[in-house]
Amino acid sequence: MKFSTKLLLSLLFFSVLSFAVIIISVNQAIDYFSFVTIEKQMMEKADICELSFREILARHDKSESQAQPSDISKSALEALKAAGREVRIYDENLKLLGLAVDGIIINDPSPVIFKESIENALKGNYSYNVINNGLIYFSIPIQDRYYNNVYVFELVEDISYFYDIMNKIRYILFIGAGGFILLMTLSSLYISRKTTKPIKYLLGETEKFSKQQFDHVYLNRKDELGMLAAGLNQMGIQLNDYIQYQKQFVSNVSHELKTPLAAIRGFSQYLFEGENENEELKKVYYHLVNESDRLTKLINELLVLSRFDKATQDLDTERTDLAELIDGITREYRPKAEKKEITLVTKFKKEIFVNVNRILMSHAIANVIDNAIKYSNPKSQITVEAFVQENKVVIKISDQGIGIAQSDIDLVQERFYRAKNSQVANGSGLGLSICKEIIEKFNGHLIIESEIAVGTVVSLIIPLE
Ligand SMILES: Nc1ncnc2c1ncn2[C@@H]1O[C@H](COP(=O)(O)OP(=O)(O)OP(=O)(O)O)[C@@H](O)[C@H]1O
Ligand SMILES: [Mg+2]
User: Fold this and answer.
1) Which atom of ligand 1 is nearest to the CA of 399?
2) Has residue 351 got a pLDDT over 90?
């Protein structure tokens, strides 16, 4: 998963989580405080009703005639019938003595009675029940002058408006939550983009470093990322200096060695061809010629590379008949192939013309053919094909040789790298890297496909203008 996606997801996760906690707590708080408010309102109402009820009780106590509970409840109901949406009076035996709805005393034979709530009130406590349709049954104990709970006065109120308000608040809260999450998503996106942008830039620059492109690395910020960019820039400068120094060194040494080596090569050839009866000495001279040949080839290749490193202007190119060019190279390499009884086959369907530098292009193709011969088994076949595919020219050299391990395929294109199984032939590990650089000069690229002990196919691909 990408760093920016990870950052975005964690930012979103934590903000949604914290907001969910806030929503749940606010929801709970709304529930709690609304009930506290309702309870308070009901208590205040209850206090007034209780006072009035006790006044009626006191009045009946003062009158000489013995008052019946039904008379008392009647007077109380008459006085308090409009105190609530519904008003009820119970005696101490939970018997309903009277009931009024919307200020009118009525005779309801089977009303809903919350026995537990009434029993609780008879113990001297306020008690209430809320039912689904938003009605609250609030029971108030009424004491006589001896502080006995003799009646229960019950107020029924419609508190559905309160639920409506609570639901509206919740609705607003959830809309707010939706907006918040949207805002968080957008800001997380923005933050993750903004944070990863400089990281992506630094990543791109380090990738360029690996291709030996040392551009100036700079971030206009004073934090750790700015410091990292400055550090990378410094590292790039040092690396570039080091590589340039190394290349210059190799180039100078190659130049210095070229002349003495030519002399050594000339003298050893002279000695080898001279009249000498001593077989042992002949072998030594032969070896000297071979070794100086090898060294000359190495020096020449190093000089080609150093010329590439220094080259700033474009190459001279000319319209070249590819079939003719390849024929020339294969003619040159046929004797070497024949020594190993290798058949060198060429396949061209039609004339192909490309705009290249003839010398460099032959150098590149020759290097690959040279490899194919060097790393092939005797009595095998090498095929050199050239064809046009999707506006590109493909030169394909296939052999039936020792092959290259998958892990080595990218590395063999680097300077001085030789695969683990390459001891079968001499070499300095420069041929393919030169070939690659030449092909890249023509805006092309190299594809190497290979299987150990089966063979190798090297394709040189260059675009047709
Ligand atoms: N056709 C091939 N079959 C098997 N291995 C190959 C083939 N071509 C290249 N290689 C491997 O790739 C390595 C690099 O090839 P390259 O041509 O750069 O160097 P070299 O042949 O060793 O030396 P040089 O070409 O400089 O004389 C070789 O050492 C060899 O291990
Ligand atoms: Mg080679």
Assistant:
1) 1
2) no
